[in-house]
Structures are given as C-alpha cells and as structure tokens.
Amino acid sequence: IACIGSFFLLVYLIMAIIGSPLSVAKCVFVCFQSCHATKPDMLNVHLVPHTHDDVGWLKTVDQYYYGDRNNIQHAGVQYILDSVVDQLLKNPDRRFIYVETAFFYRWWKQQSSSMQQTVKQLVDEGRLEFVNGGWCMSDEATTHYSAVIDQMTLGLRFLNETFGVCGRPRVAWHIDPFGHAREHASMFAQMGFDGFFFGRVDYQDRARRMKDKEQELLWRASSSLTPPMADLFTGILPNGYNPPDGFCWDQLCDDAPIRDDPDLEDYNVDDVVTRFLKAANTQALAYKTNHIIMTMGSDFQYENANLWYKNLDKLILYVNANQSSGSKVNLLYSTPSCYLQELHRANLTWPLKEDDFFPYADAAHDFWTGYFTSRPALKRYERISNSNLQTCNQLEVLGGPASRKGPFGAGDSQTLSKAMAVAQHHDAVSGTEKQHVANDYAKRLAEGWQHCQVLVSNSLASLRGSSAEIIYCDNLNISVCPLTEASKKFSVGVYNPLAHPVTWPVRLPVNGTAYGVTDATGKPVFPVSRSTQDVRRNRGFARNELVFQVQAPPLGFSTYFTFFFLHCDKFSSKNKTISLLQYLQVTFDPDTGLLSGLSNLETKQTIKLTQNFYWYNSSRGNNAESKQPSGAYIFRPNSSTPLVVSKTAKSSVVQEVRQRFSPWVSQVVRLYADSKALELEWTVGPVPINDWQGKEVITRLDTSIKTSQLFYTDSNGREVLQRRKDFRPTWELKQTEPIAGNYYPINSRAFLKDDEDQLTVVTDRSQGGSSLQNGSLEIMLHRRLLFDDYRGVDEALNEASEIFPDGLVVRGRLFLTLDHPASAADTHRPLAQQVVLQPLLTFTDGDLSPETQLEFSGLQAALPSAVHLLTLSQWDKDSVLLRLEHQFQSDESQVNSRPVTVNLQKLFSTLDVLGVSELNLSANQWKDEMKRFEWSPQKGTVHT
Ligand SMILES: *[C@@H]1O[C@H](CO)[C@@H](O)[C@H](O)[C@H]1NC(C)=O
Ligand SMILES: *[C@@H]1O[C@H](CO)[C@@H](O)[C@H](O)[C@H]1NC(C)=O
Ligand SMILES: *[C@@H]1O[C@H](CO)[C@@H](O)[C@H](O)[C@H]1NC(C)=O
Ligand SMILES: *[C@@H]1O[C@H](CO)[C@@H](O)[C@H](O)[C@H]1NC(C)=O
Ligand SMILES: *[C@@H]1O[C@H](CO)[C@@H](O)[C@H](O)[C@H]1NC(C)=O
Ligand SMILES: [Zn+2]
Predict the structure, then answer these.
(1) What does the pLDDT look like over 247-270, one tens digit per residue?
(2) Where are the domains of the chain?
(3) Which end of the chain is more exposed for a tag (fewer CB within 10 A), N or C?
C-alpha cells in the first residue's frame, strides 16, 4: 500500500495487524438537528451555559474533581456534573456544554448504568454537547504538537467510544489560554473541527477588530497545507468567557436574581429586560451577523445549576415576551455548534488571518510573556516525559502482549499517557499554577514513567530474549547513576524512538579513571564539573564522567559494553579552539573567556557570535506607569537594559569548555564528532534574591548576521513564523513594553538569518525569547520572582524544594547550528526531533548471556529523511495507531520539502500489515467521513 503525502500532509492510520480490515461505520447526524429555531428578522442571542474547569491550577486536578480544599477555592466538578444533568432533565429546552474530558471521564466511571443511559440520551438529543473534548484545554504557548495531539486523541477517543457520533465535538473551545498558536488552529482543522472559539486576545487587537467587525475570521493556519486543509473559522468571544455584566446567576456571583412576582418587594423584570436588550444590542454592533453568542458561565460555575437555569429560563421568557411589543431580540438556549451553524448559514465572507495571536496583553504594561519560561524545570520534565511516553508506546507495540505482562510484572502506558495529557493544561506546563499543584503534575509524570519502565523492561526482555534486570538512570543530567558509579562492568542499551538512525553522546558518572567501551568511538573520562557537583548536592559521588558516542538503528536498540581499566589516562589541553570535528569550529575571546565566533567548516561560513548571560530586574509593581509586577504569567522588567551577570567567564578546557560566570551561572560548551550542532549546557540557580530583587535570567547571542529587525520562532514545535520587532501583521501596534511586548514563545527553535547565514538555536523545552537588536537573539532561561502578578495564582514564582531550599537550580541545553538559509532546515528539523525524542538509555550490570540479542530495529529500513514517525501506539488488541508526518515546510528545503512516498507494507520488520484505515489527526473519525464546513475568505485579505 503506497501512501503519498503532499507537503506537510499528516497521514494517520489504524493498521489492523490481525483479523479483517476494519469496517467503516456510517452514521446519521440526528444530534445536530436539535438546535433551537432562530428568527431570521431578529437579533438572535445564543445563550451558552458552560463551566470552565481547569485541570489543575490553584488546586490539583483531583482536588478540583472532588471539591476538596475549598478553603483555597470553592470548586467541585463532580457536583457540577451531578447538578447540571439534574437541571437538564427538568426542561428539555435547556442546553449545556462540557469541555474537559479528564473530569468527565472521572465522573462517568462513577455513575450507575441507568444514569449513564440518561446522559447518553441527553447527548443524543443535543442537550448536553461536548466541545473541544480533549483531556484538557491545552496551553498554546508552551506545548509541543506531539503532546497536544496525544491529549486530544485521549479525550476524543473516550467520547467517541462512549457516545458515538453524537459525542464528537465539532467546535474547538480555548476560552482561557493566554494567546493562541497558529499550529493549534492547524491541528484543530486537521482534527475535523468546524470552528474554534476563544476568549483572550490582545486588547489593541480586540479594539481594532470590534471597530471593523472582525472578531470572527478565517484563520489560515498553515503555509504548507493546501487551503482549506488548515483553514479554521475562528470566533473571539465577547466577554472573555464570562456573561455580560450584571447577568451572572451562579452561586459564586452576586448579581440580582430575576424577581418576577409583582406582589413581592423589588420586582425587577423590566429593569432586567431593559439592561439585557442594551447589552445584546451593544454586542451586536461588533459582530457581522444577526446572531451573537453569550457565554453564560465561568470558572467552576454550575455547582448549583438551578440558580443559573432558573434565571435563564425567566430571562428567555421575559425578553422574548417583548417581541410582541416590537422588540427585535430573540433569546435561545444554544451551544457553540448551533451558533456556528448559523454563522455558516449566513454565507458571508470572513477576514483572513495568517499569523498568530502572540503575544497577548490585556493592558499596556501587562504582557503575558513570562509564562513562556515560568517553571523551566517542569517544562523540561514535561518534554522528556513526552519522549519517554513515545518510547513506551512504541515498545508496547514492538514487544507485543509480553510488554504489558512479562517477567517484570504488569506495566502500562496509560498512566503516563494520562499524566502527560493533564500536563498539557493551560495552567500546567505553562507554569502558572500554585507550587503544590506543580508538584502534583510532576508526581503524576514520575508515577506514569514508573509504570512505563515496567512495560519497557518487559518489552526489551522479549525483544532481546533475556530477562536480565534492566536498570534506569533518570538523573544522568546531573551525573548521578548508582549502577555506573559502582559497577566495574555493565552494558548500556540505547533505544532510539526515531525512524532514522541516531548518533548520540552518552555521559555516564563513573568513579574510575579509565574505561573501555566496545563498539564506540572516543571514551575519555572527564572530572565531574564543579557546577554538576553543586547541582547534584548530596545525590551521588561520582568523580568522573565517561563520554562516548553511541549509534542506534531506527525504532530500535543497540548495546554497548563498558569495562573498567586500572591505568590512568588523563585528557587535558590548553587549547582555546575546539574543532576536532569536521563540521563546526567555535572560538572564544582570550580576554573575556566568552564565546566569540562560530564557523561551519563544511560550508566555510563564519559569523561573529558573542554569548553572555544577563538578567532583567523584575518590576515590583511600584512604578509610575503601572502597578503591574512581573509574575508567573506576566513579564515586566523594570528597565529595558538587562544587567550582565559577569563581563567575563572563567573557563577551563577539558575537551569541553567549562565557563563559570558567577556562583549561580555556568555553562559547558561542547562539540561532538559527527554532530552538526554546538551544544551549550547552561546551569542557572539558585538565583540570588538577597538583594530583594526578582530576576529573569536570559542568555543573549549577539551575532554579525544582518537581520533588519526580523527573527523566526516555531509554533508548537512545527511550522515557523516570522517575527518583527515592535510590529504585528494585522494591526498598527502601539508598543508600550519594549522588552516584554517583543517576547514570543520558542517551543523547539528560533533563528536569525540574512542572505548568507542562518544561526538556528534548538531548545530542549519551551522558553520565551526575542530579538531586540539586529543580529541578536535572547532566550529567557529561568525566573525567580518576589511578587504575585494579580492573575489569580496568588503566589510569587519563587521555586524552591527540599533539596534546593535556597532556590531551584535549572540546567538545560541549547543547540546551535550555522548553515546557509536554503539548507538550514535539513539540519535543524532532524536535530530538533532528536532533542524531542531522545534515545532512552537502559543499563544491565555485569555480562549479558551470550544468546542476548544486542541489536534490533522495528523497521525494515529508515524512513525517508522528510518523514517523521510521530506516533506508533497500541490502539486495541488487533490494531495500532500510526502517524507519519512530513516534517518539512513547503519552502524550506530543496531536497526535503518534496512529497514523499512511504510503502507501508514494507515498513515494519516484525509486524505484518493486514489492512489500513485512514483517520483524521485525532483518530476519532474516519478520514473519508471527515466533512468540514467550508468558509470563504474576504476579498483583499488573501496575501500571497
Ligand atoms: C416589555 O414589554 C412589556 C409589556 O409587554 C412592557 O411593559 C415593557 O416596558 C417592555 N420592556 C421593554 C424593555 O421593552
Ligand atoms: C452563498 O453566496 C454565494 C455568493 O454570494 C452564492 O453564489 C451562493 O448561492 C450562496 N449560497 C447559499 C447556500 O445561499
Ligand atoms: C566513588 O568515589 C568516592 C570518592 O572516592 C567515594 O566517596 C564513593 O563512595 C565512590 N562510590 C562508589 C559507588 O564506589
Ligand atoms: C589543539 O587542538 C588541535 C586539534 O585537536 C591539536 O592539533 C593541537 O595539538 C592542540 N594544541 C594544544 C596546545 O593542545
Ligand atoms: C467510534 O466509536 C464507535 C463506537 O462508539 C466505533 O464503532 C467506531 O469505530 C469509532 N470510530 C473511530 C474512528 O474510531
Ligand atoms: Zn483556565
């Protein structure tokens, strides 16, 4: 079976491995004929009862579910669902939408089968409608597309399997995320959504759109996919996601109820009707059609749904009653899909948007650009957990049933899959939750990984034909691994989750000074650096690091044996240039010790490149322009000039260059043979605050590249968007924060380029960054702040822990490549995938039995370089879910941007493909059944 991907086409398949090909279900959409009738000659007001239930924020996801710790915030999702179902049954006109499947799933499991039947009927009749339907409402600035697709798949699959076609959301709903990524819109389009609604948009952008009636638009979310594949109708909601002022009837609100008994005190029906008509008519001025939407609900509302519904019933009754006295306003219970259907019927043309909605500001000095970097350790942990989950999913398929139940017990991938899905929430990986909630997210990921470790061990045992104990070392980044420190002979298994072969540097903590490694090149031993000793504190005592390059086949493993030698062989050099390698050369300034230049020896390109570390002093909120402090969400430096940590770095050279800038900032500069990237391993913290100054630490690369205010950042790790300082493509920006107002999310890469040179920086987690001077690129690495920023979290972002009571130390890596712009993507695309899906190292003490299989590849051959294997996971007993992705944009590579053919029949080495069925991106709909609304762009807004 040949599958041809056009530019950037994703192909999603369920492959039936055993048994007959899957049959295609044919369904009729009875459920969507349940929208209430509207009146063509009136202003129709769609009242959408809803609740916004954060999958963790001030409380953990489980505390929110149960309504525990109500002293922190009164919120209990189980009661919300109980109460709403009860109220829906009382009046068939009523509607409700539900969004977060993480909560709905918890509730559903606890219901009796008769209650489940009742709820199914409500769903079939369109009275309870699922919107968005992912496990959570993901953050858009700090998530990676791979994890977003997984979390959407998890939620949507549950809805499809539980409710069938009527449970399939047709509308994406991101009412709270703090800025909107173009890649999210592209993914939603490919998941089959007909439209997308959100609540937060920059205040200047909103003002302009309200004036021009452009709050509803067509988002062209990919520069590579042929329209309308990634076109998504997008609506900006009128009041964020709240009801209009004065019409909040939840128990959490204080607005007056509708007092409609004329015999009692304070009869207010006329007042309510008058105020409502005014609100509706005002709102209608900013939208194009004779339909408007009102979100009747907010955070954790409807716990006592009677309050809302009783008043909404009356509101509809009394406002519509005035139609007989000539009022032209018609109220109805509605849902986002019913509203969208009316907009579609209006058959208008819509303004086209091709950029994204970052950064988001809700006032002149309130840029929500701090969370791009907030909680950098959690952001890295989330990213590495994604890598571990993909490995776990793949090995569950490759190892067969023995992976779930084998010599090491019962393992599963579901625990990590759910923990990862929860971590995508817009107050999780975003870093905008309370500290105890951040700890809960990390704990869930750790527990998930433990379940996966059992699965991975079982699978490897089965594939290797050996049940020797497999040991994991999760702290290699700080040179801690009890096995390698103590053992005189051990083997290293390298599992590569990519569909291409990989070469990877391995660094292991050891106590000896000389080691032999079979089949690996370069095996020097370096003393453990001072910064590593500092950061590991008392968690391990290894004196040295053993470094060697390993190779692993696509979707498979290799094995290396390591022996301890007694004699000593010292590596040290005074050499100020490191260039043992064919690709790159890096130079340092002899006076300052700073990086000063980068050359690509292959292409003979050289740029000036000075790198240093700086910090912005965070605003305390006490200055003349605004009281806004810097906090978990908001970035607000007190001055536009960052302070330098140190003008010089003390460096020592042990094949790698170790730079020390201050007691709390250090860096190791590394070049590896066969690697086209320069590695900068930074270690920042504990950030001192004894001067009572919050600090936002950046590294800045100042280069000779002539960028004329332009720079480039990726969107959720996928397509790349052009950015320009002090500029927004769709409105005349009045810049009010020269630093924070120019920050953008960097999920996996950013670059600078001119006609000759492109410097690309690949990151190991999501971070914020900007280019504020020509040729300069800065990336924010860590933040330690002393004030809350008044967005609800009510804590200063001042991370500490048991091991780091003096403040968290964070370590990470940046990878730099220098290429010609025309071929840069050929290097940075595969490099970024290697950083996202990095090899998993496993260890076995002593010898392996001679019959152990030392090498394995799940593929017959590596995939073409343009194709990325995004997902391979067990779907059900007989089928697996496979996602293949064309990973190049249409214009970025002469060789790799072309269409590619993959022969699925010859893909796997151990699986026979018996049949293939193509699905949408989220795997909840057969591709041939995916029919989306078509929308027309307004003339004059289509750019070429
Ligand atoms: C609505 O109609 C009632 C009677 O039909 C009238 O008394 C009232 O003033 C009207 N209110 C508004 C706001 O039009
Ligand atoms: C929609 O508008 C177009 C152009 O204005 C028109 O040709 C078409 O017939 C309309 N479609 C419907 C269903 O009204
Ligand atoms: C490694 O060496 C250090 C320093 O000599 C020692 O304290 C430690 O116990 C050794 N670790 C092991 C596992 O042998
Ligand atoms: C510096 O490195 C180069 C390349 O590896 C080597 O040829 C040279 O001998 C080194 N010089 C010193 C002083 O170590
Ligand atoms: C959706 O769920 C139904 C069962 O409710 C199942 O028959 C169908 O195959 C599922 N669709 C997809 C695309 O998985
Ligand atoms: Zn929220």
Answers:
(1) 999 999 999 999 999 999 999 999
(2) 43-351, 584-836
(3) C
